[in-house]
Amino acid sequence: MLRTVFSSRLVGMHLVAIAALVAFGLLGRWQLGVFEDSGRPHTVSDPPAVALATLSKPGEHVTRAAANRKVTAEGVFDPARSLLVAGRDGGFWLLDSLDLGDGTQVPVVRGRVARPGDPAAAVPQGKVTVTGRLVPPEQVDSVRRDARTLPAGQVLSVSTAELINVWPGARLRDGYVVATAQSPAPAVAAEPVPAPPPSKPGEFSWRNLAYAANWWIFGVFTIFLWFHYIRDAHRAPVREQREPEHDGDAAGVALSESSMR
């Protein structure tokens, strides 16, 4: 059998089978990649910035349509409610409460610093206009909890439910704003925190998964044909040897019958 497989007359057939397997495998992987990409979140249109009050109502949750939208908010930061969010890329987020002047406040992530004593951590004074993206509150379970006790003025998550307890008496709007610009600009700017644009969940394209399966089935069928071709090539000499013997026996029988006559 091995002698048949490695015979020179079958080299061309082996090359064709290998080329077909490689092609079918790559085509199947390509269709699988298309299927996987279809399930990933997709960026949607990014409208211009609107007033925060347009998308965020007191006592209401941040909707999916409002998540990561550009907003502007005008107010005054409260230095007494300045916090550091620990464990953010080896540093800290600057989290402050912006009093909107209507009895409500919104948490604002002004940027990131490497250490608590960074000059950029100083809270801006006076009325400011913040431009940024409205982000839903973080889920407490999604943030890694540290066994140690955090120093005063530090938290691990930007959760509206937790901030209500940390900032007693504050009437907070849901979610928080990741600042991308501030007017007037701070004396020392912090490192910006990335704020992705709006996106929507992807919908899997099951048709492409079926295409991938089809290409791989073709590959299995190629192996099946290759095996049967090798088997037939191996059996052919055996059949050729048996046919002359069979013809000789038939001729002998014919001669015997003739002599008997």
Written description of the protein model:
The protein is α/β, with parallel strands linked by helices and 261 residues long. It contains five helices and ten strands, in the order ααββαββββββαββα. Helix 2 (11-38) runs antiparallel to helix 5.
Layout: helices, strands, pairs:
Blueprint: H1 2-5, H2 11-38, E1 42-43, E2 50-51, H3 52-55, E3 70-77, E4 83-88, E5 91-99, E6 105-113, E7 127-135, E8 154-155, H4 160-166, E9 176-183, E10 199-200, H5 206-260
Parallel strand pairs: 2-3, 4-8, 6-9
Antiparallel strand pairs: 1-10, 3-5, 3-7, 4-5, 5-6, 7-9
Give a quick summary of the entry:
The protein is an alpha/beta fold. Helix content is 38%, strand content 22%. The chain has helices spanning 2-5, 11-38, 52-55, 160-166, 206-260, and strands spanning 42-43, 50-51, 70-77, 83-88, 91-99, 105-113, 127-135, 154-155, 176-183, 199-200.
- From the N-terminal CA to the C-terminal CA, the straight-line distance is 47 Å
**Secondary-structure element order, as H and E?**
HHEEHEEEEEEHEEH
Largest beta-sheet characterization: 5 strands, mixed, barrel
Structural class: alpha/beta
How much helix is in the residues? 25-40%
The radius of gyration computed from the alpha-carbon positions, rounded to a whole number of angstroms, is: 37 Å
Averaged pLDDT: 84
Order of strands across the widest beta sheet? 3-5-6-9-7
Mass-distribution shape: elongated
**Number of helices in the DSSP assignment:** 5
Strand content: 15-25%
